[in-house]
Amino acid sequence: MPTLNLSTNVPVDAVAASDILKDCSRTLAKIIGKPESYVMISLNGGVPMAFAGSEEPAAYGEAISIGGLGPSVNGKLSSALAEILQTKLSVDSSRFYIKFYDVQRSYFGFNGSTF
């Protein structure tokens, strides 16, 4: 159930979106040690966004998981995702925030129930 929600002010075409989704899915699964078959990624491009008073390329993300997150993992994940955003969308790592949520099983629903 690892989930990554990304928003950016950079317009994202379908080809770039597909590449980013695949890269982020693979990266999230690998770094937090969960099967990719459980990973969900959402990407919203062209979102009105300012960072430090500027509308230059920027991004915000939220990573949610039942376990697998923690200080050392979060740092690795932040770095890897920032690299993807830099490579694919020219978002500098200094213009990317990510928030991590390690949630309890009962706070995440799936298939009409909770985990």
Automatic annotation (TrEMBL):
Q: What is its EC number?
A: 5.3.2.1, 5.3.3.12
Q: Which SUPFAM superfamilies match?
A: Tautomerase/MIF
> Listed GO cellular component terms?
extracellular space
Keyword presence, Secreted = yes
Name the keywords, alphabetized.
Cytokine, Isomerase, Secreted
* Family annotation (Pfam families): MIF
Give the EC class as a word: isomerase
- Per its UniProt entry, which superkingdom is the organism in? Eukaryota
State where it is primarily located. Answer: secreted
Name a GO molecular-function annotation.
Answer: phenylpyruvate tautomerase activity
From the Swiss-Prot or TrEMBL record, state where the protein is found.
Answer: Secreted
Q: Which InterPro entries match?
A: Macrophage_inhib_fac (IPR001398), Tautomerase/MIF_sf (IPR014347)
This enzyme catalyses: L-dopachrome = 5,6-dihydroxyindole-2-carboxylate; 3-phenylpyruvate = enol-phenylpyruvate
Concerning its family, UniProt says:
Belongs to the MIF family.
Q: Please identify the protein, giving its name as recorded.
A: L-dopachrome isomerase
Biological source species: Ananas comosus (Pineapple)
Its ancestry begins with:
Eukaryota, Viridiplantae, Streptophyta, Embryophyta, Tracheophyta
Gene this protein is translated from: LOC109706392
